[in-house]
Task: inverse folding
């Protein structure tokens, strides 16, 4: 098992814990940010686990789709959904950190919906679990 893959997956889990804490505080921009980071790290972990070198970007969903055939069937069936979510979270990333300066909206006004932020966190958790299932046994 690639040490980076194992570490990325562990750090993705740490982001999810931070996301849960942010959710409890009502800090929805942070929930979105941590959900994006957890998704990014989880997907990079699985790419590394099958020997795929990805570009140093925040959204690797397209790379995941491109190499879908390298993954077990049950995981490959989830790739499209994970790639779509990765792209959606990448689109939210900057606004979660900085807001929308052009419109004068700080992050807390852009992301103020607990249902949407909670859904992002739950999908990031689902992706992390799938990635852990794929590479977990090899990490022992």
Result:
């Amino acid at each position: 098992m690639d040490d980076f893959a194992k570490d990325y997956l562990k750090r993705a889990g740490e982001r999810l814990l931070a996301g849960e804490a942010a959710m409890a505080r009502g800090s929805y921009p942070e929930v979105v940010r941590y959900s994006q980071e957890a998704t990014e790290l989880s997907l990079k972990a699985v790419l590394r686990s099958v020997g795929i070198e990805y570009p140093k970007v925040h959204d690797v969903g397209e790379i995941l789709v491109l190499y879908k055939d390298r993954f077990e069937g049950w995981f490959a069936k989830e790739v499209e959904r994970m790639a779509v979510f990765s792209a959606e979270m990448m689109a939210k990333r900057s606004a979660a950190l900085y807001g929308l300066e052009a419109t004068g909206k700080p992050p807390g006004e852009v992301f103020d919906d607990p249902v949407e932020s909670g859904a992002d966190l739950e999908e990031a958790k689902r992706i992390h679990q799938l990635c852990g299932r794929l590479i977990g046994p090899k990490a022992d």
User: Anything to note?
Assistant: Helices lie at 3-25, 28-49, 61-66, 73-76, 79-98, 107-110, 114-135. The first helix runs from residue 3 to 25.
